[in-house]
Amino acid sequence: MHKLERSSAPECLSQYSPEKDRWKSVTPENRAQIREQLNAMQQQRCAYCENSTAGNNAQHIEHFRQRSEYPQGTFEWKNLFGSCNRNHSCGKHKDSLAGQYNYQDIIKPDEEDPDHFFCFTQHGTIEIRQHLSERDRHRASETLRIFNLDAQHGPLRSMRKSTLQGYLQTAEEFAAMAEQFEEKEWRPLLEEELYRIKDLPFATAIKHLLMV
């Protein structure tokens, strides 16, 4: 999960109203337009786990606040994200397996920076940062639980770990440079590398590895 910058709403959403329409009323053409703008915001990655959503049937349009609990948000652009289609994580887990929760306990990535709450390790795990208030630690913990982002033996952890294996040597090289040279000499190289990986799946985990 990483900070997202939300653009203006797709024009097609203005055609619908929760008073007279249901989500199934949205035409395939309009859904495609919504997905296009979500993909632009998220670089074709899940808003929650950051894995790729490229390809057919890899993504669904996710309502951050469930339609059953918040029908007035059915067509609100700020309530929509693109989520992967994994049944045991992210949007589907939130809506079917997470049990009871308060939506205000979930970190919303277009309004808050998840970097404030989480740190990824080279083992693919997600740690909650130590400096947080009790309230923020609760919200961080609930976000991981509700989206099932750090299940001990879950596939997401394995996929992140596998991705990070390809960057371990690069991280070691930057650590060595940091010990031998002044920051002004190696920092531009690090920034270049961070720019190269910024749109990749699990980019936040890669960034945290490189910046240790």
How much β-strand is present in the residues? 5-15%
Counted beta strands: 4
Percent in helix: 25-40%
Unreliable stretches: none
N→C terminal distance = 18 Å
Overall pLDDT level: 95
List keywords for this structure.
212 residues, mainly alpha, two-stranded antiparallel ribbon, 7 helices, 39% helix
Protein described:
It is built from 7 helices and 4 strands; from the N terminus they run αββαββααααα. It is mainly alpha-helical. It has one domain (11-159). The protein has a two-stranded antiparallel sheet with strand order 1-2. The two termini are 18 Å apart. The relative contact order is 0.13. The model has no long low-confidence stretch (mean pLDDT 95).
Question: Could you provide a short overview of the structure?
Answer:
By secondary structure, this protein is mainly alpha-helical. It has helices spanning 28-42, 90-96, 134-147, 155-165, 168-180, 183-197, 203-210, and strands at 59-63, 80-84, 118-120, 126-128. The chain has one domain (11-159).
What does the secondary structure layout of this molecule look like, with pairings?
Layout: H1 28-42, E1 59-63, E2 80-84, H2 90-96, E3 118-120, E4 126-128, H3 134-147, H4 155-165, H5 168-180, H6 183-197, H7 203-210
Antiparallel strand pairs: 1-2, 3-4
